[in-house]
Design a protein that fits this description.
alpha/beta; TIM Barrel; Cyclophilin; 2 domains; 27% helix; 20% strand; elongated
Amino acid sequence: MEKKKIGISIYPDKAKLQDTKDYLDLAKKYNYEIVFVSFIHLKKDAKEELNTVIEAIKYAKSLGFYILADVHFPSLEMLGVPINDFRKLKDMGVDSVRFDSPAMASDLAALTHNDYELDIQLNMSNNDSLIDNVLDFKPVLTRLQGGHNFYPQKNTAISWDFFVEATKRYTSKNLSTLAFIGSHNGNQGPAAVNKELPTLEFCRDLPVESQAKVLFYSNTINNVLFGNAFASEEELKKVSELDREEITFTLDWEKSITKEEKEIANYKEHFRRGDITEFFIRSTMSRVIWASSDIKPRDKKSTYKRGDVVIVNNNGASYKGELHIILKDGYVDENNQYNQIGKVRTGELFLMNFVEPWSRFRLN
């Protein structure tokens, strides 16, 4: 799998050019690498808007961004770009051409052989056999990618199960993949409603960093981009700082947590035991490291919910020091051996599905 990268989307026709440039500068500051720009929503006679978009692309390219352009055949015609000659796109600074609407598989495969070495991205969200048909015509595999749609209108984005099925068509072929998260700040996009532009509907209202974690920790998406603009600086910062590889849960911490319990929680090498139980995610190395610690019982509760994070106290005898994340609501601690140290935030409970046998994880 390729290195996991982050990116933004820009809509230069919907903002002052300088504001778009400032946004690009800000994204660069936080190590964003990809810029998505769409030509599809531009009107044929909108020459001024088109020139603004092209100028913004060239500025983004000067900053070192990888430029992904969303097109269809009418927009290529508007740009004066023949289907068999991408020189004009290359001169603009475009690195990858995403075809939003269907095209002949043989044509798409042929486009990967373009003289300017531009990448070709296919629409993953249709969950169809297009990728298989394209592969029949021997494309340049290193120039072939998949990218999901974003969905401005509430309740129109795809479901998790559909996402998994559609994405697998590309990951099974070791192709680069892309999906979108939605800023809660930006209101620029290609449609009339642009408050959030995620790929997954259940992610729409989640904090941006939690949305990104879902995509990255699924280990099926290489590139995660904000779909709408402008994301706030805080949002850009949060997504840029998250660990893209190690599953990291954001916790609401208990105020009564002790110094030693916090040390156990902050242990950097928690992993789920290979011989898993269905009741909790069990990390056991901490019981070895903190074997001599005095972890006094301090929690009178006996029933726990999914996402509660606990440490085994002195009553657990040789199990003392283990860290567990409860998987089932109503789990009962019959021996008063648990001290609760926090709970996984509601918006990140879904991430627990990614913690498989031997998976490492961290707590924040």
